[in-house]
Amino acid sequence: MDYIEVTISLKPFRPFNEIVVAQLGDLSFNSFTEDEDEETVKAYILEGDYIQSDVESILSPFEDLAKIEFNASKIEKVNWNQEWEENFDAVEVGDFCCVRAPFHLEKSNFTHEIIIEPKMSFGTGHHQTTKMMIEHMESIDFNGKTVLDMGSGTGILAILAKQMGAKEVVGIDIEEWAYENMVENFDRNNVDIAAYKGGEELIANIGKPYDVIIANINKNILLRQLPTYKLHLNNRALLLLSGFYETDAEDLIQAKELDGYALIHQITKETWCALKLQKGE
Fold first, then answer.
1. Same structural domain, 44 and 104
2. What angle in degrees, to the nearest 10, is found between the helix axes of 176-188 and 156-163?
3. Could you tell me which residues come within 8 angstroms of residue 11 by beta carbon, excluding any fewer than 6 positions away?
4. Measured between alpha carbons, how far is 53 from 169 in angstroms, rounded to an integer?
5. One domain, residues 256 and 119
6. pTM summary value
7. What is the pLDDT of residue 122?
8. Total domain count, the chain
9. Range of the domain at 151
10. CATH number of the domain that residue 46 is part of
11. How many whole angstroms separate alpha carbon 154 and alpha carbon 42?
């Protein structure tokens, strides 16, 4: 099937590029490229999934804050690897973790190195939410722990947990293309991680208790799934949440679904937020 390429011009480019990519990611767009010099974001979606009014509804709230224009055109095929090789740089989080593509040179001065085939935008480490999750994970002792990475995407956070000594890691994603990419990246990084395609119902079906649950999704989905997380978290277990704006953090912290949790640490980067919480006895 052919793809639709949506080219979005943003002035100023930042921080609206991050916001637009995040919100289009909630639709069926499955790859993005960004050009800060040209101040454009290009988003790709299967022709049958494209609805122009959906794009308009995402962009319209920002019209008073930025100059935004977009156009859509049909393209027959996209070589995603070539697109990303032209736009993808290695991501470094201090000297703790380097996330690179197979075409980047190996770097030996990091505690952890993760190789991600860049077939999608989220989970390459570039988005602020992923970077913040990595920062939270650096402070955790994963040795012998059981871990769930919900909405795993490329599997980057699941891979890191396993590299950090987790005994058992489960990665779940509802999107077919994300699931396939996750499995590829688990193999690429030589980690033994159970991968599942599906949604919240799989947590109960698998039936495991976890010492750490990682969920980098979005506010509404998090609020809906928090009760299920709580049922499958051990006492004193950790819950890492991101995928939402700083302005939404208090709504999550005060949500009844998080009653009984203690807020351990909060990180904010460029309007995005990530929370580290601990479940009580």
1. no
2. 30
3. 39, 66, 67, 68
4. 39
5. yes
6. 0.72
7. 47
8. 2
9. 87-279
10. 3.30.70.100
11. 20
Provide the token pair at 117: 């085939």
State which of 20, 43, 78 marks the end of a domain.
78
Q: What is the pLDDT of residue 198?
A: 92
- C-alpha span between 63 and 51 (Å, rounded): 19
What per-residue confidence (pLDDT) applies to 77? 58
Residue type, position 177, single letter: W
Structure tokens at 116: 């991600």
In this structure, the answer to whether residues 107 and 58 fall within a common structural domain is no
Q: What does the chain look like in DSSP terms, one character per residue?
A: --EEEEEEEEES-TTHHHHHHHHHHTTT--EEEEETTTTEEEEEEEGGG--HHHHHHHHGGGTTTSEEEEEEEEES---HHHHHHHH---EEETTTEEEE-TTSPP--SSSEEEE---SSSTTSS-SHHHHHHHHHHHTS--TT-EEEEET-TT-HHHHHHHHTT-SEEEEEES-HHHHHHHHHHHHHTT---EEEES-THHHHHH---EEEEEEES-HHHHHHHHHHHHHTEEEEEEEEEEEEEHHHHHHHHT-GGGTTEEEEEEEEETTEEEEEEEE--
Low-confidence ranges of the chain (pLDDT < 70): 1, 30, 76-88, 118-126
Amino acid at 29: F
Q: What's the confidence (pLDDT) of residue 121?
A: 39
Beta pairing partners, 269: 272
Same domain, 91 and 71: no
**Residue 215 CB contacts under 8 Å (≥ 6 apart), including other chains:** 149, 150, 151, 222, 225, 229, 239, 240, 241, 242, 243
Is there a single domain that holds both residue 116 and residue 29?
A: no
End-to-end CA distance of the chain: 52
Query: Which amino acid appears at position 162 of this protein?
Result: K
90-119 pLDDT per residue, tens:
788 899 999 888 877 787 789 999 998 756
Confidence at residue 234, expressed as pLDDT on a 0 to 100 scale: 96
